[in-house]
Design brief:
CATH topology: Double Stranded RNA Binding Domain
Number of strands: 4
Number of domains: 1
Strand order of the largest sheet: 1-2-3-4
CATH superfamily: Ribosome hibernation promotion factor-like
Distance between the termini: 45 Å
Helix content: 40-55%
Shape: elongated
Structural class: alpha+beta
Amino acid sequence: MNINLTGRHLEITPAIREHVTAKLGKIKRHSDNLIDINVVLSVEKLQQKAEATVHLSGKTVFAETDDSNLYVAIDNLVDSLDRQILKHKDKNSARRHDDTGGQVVAE
């Protein structure tokens, strides 16, 4: 799995890089079919913005958050991505274990 970290109007310090990779470890635990993650951190006026695109096998997940504190924005971003990935994982496992085989059964 590749993690691409980009900063717009912001220098990516080692502390920020460490915080992002540590938080993204939470996502790695929930899904083993991650291909890559693109994270963009930016500053727009007084708002710190974090956005990420996660490429899974068969799906692309996008999330975006902003806050006055960059670390809070990163934490909220990871929480949002985690919810979306768990939802996708639950849908796939429910579809896989469905007795109808994904087809609509007429009554």
